[in-house]
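STRUCTURE:
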């Protein structure tokens, strides 16, 4: 009975994905694809003060990849980047079939995907959006260290880190040392 409910939940997220569409002025955008099965996603995050204020995705693919990213976007809304990383870690444990993860009720709808752990070729489908999230968080943290405005290319994806705001009037970079990274 539970498997049937989970199957229906996955199909519901596939047929009526949540948070699908473009995001105006994202902080970071990550595009990823799974060349083995053709799944493609583009994850967009608007991050304000280390918190995911908005999250959207575009893409196409199998029911597993699309349902997984739909569920992921719901779980991420309003969460801190640290909480997002923790959620990613717990979902990865679920995909690896860890028993404690199967009992983690804080995963919510994501628990519906636990059966994917029995299908190794489909795990990559379920993790596609999560891999994009991992790179998005890394890009946000790189931008906090002054790497804004660069284009970062990874295998099968590109990350555009937005430009930094111009320095305030009267700012002298020669005399200001502030919080420069070590």
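SEQUENCE:
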């Amino acid at each position: 009975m539970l498997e049937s409910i989970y199957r229906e939940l996955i199909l519901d997220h596939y047929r009526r994905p949540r948070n699908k569409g473009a995001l105006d002025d994202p902080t970071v955008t990550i595009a990823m694809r799974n060349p083995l099965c053709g799944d493609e996603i583009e994850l967009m995050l608007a991050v304000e003060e280390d918190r995911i204020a908005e999250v959207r995705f575009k893409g196409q693919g199998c029911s597993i990849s699309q349902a997984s990213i739909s569920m992921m976007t719901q779980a991420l809304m309003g969460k801190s980047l640290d909480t997002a990383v923790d959620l990613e870690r717990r979902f990865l444990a679920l995909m690896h079939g860890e028993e404690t993860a199967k009992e983690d009720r804080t995963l919510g709808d994501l628990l519906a995907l636990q059966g994917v752990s029995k299908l190794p070729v489909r795990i990559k489908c379920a993790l596609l959006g999560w891999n994009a999230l991992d790179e998005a968080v890394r890009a946000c943290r790189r931008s906090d260290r002054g790497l804004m405005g660069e284009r970062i290319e990874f295998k099968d994806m590109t990350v555009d880190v937005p430009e930094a705001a111009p320095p305030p009037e009267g700012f002298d970079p020669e005399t200001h040392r502030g919080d420069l990274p070590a």
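REMARK: The longest strand covers residues 39-48.
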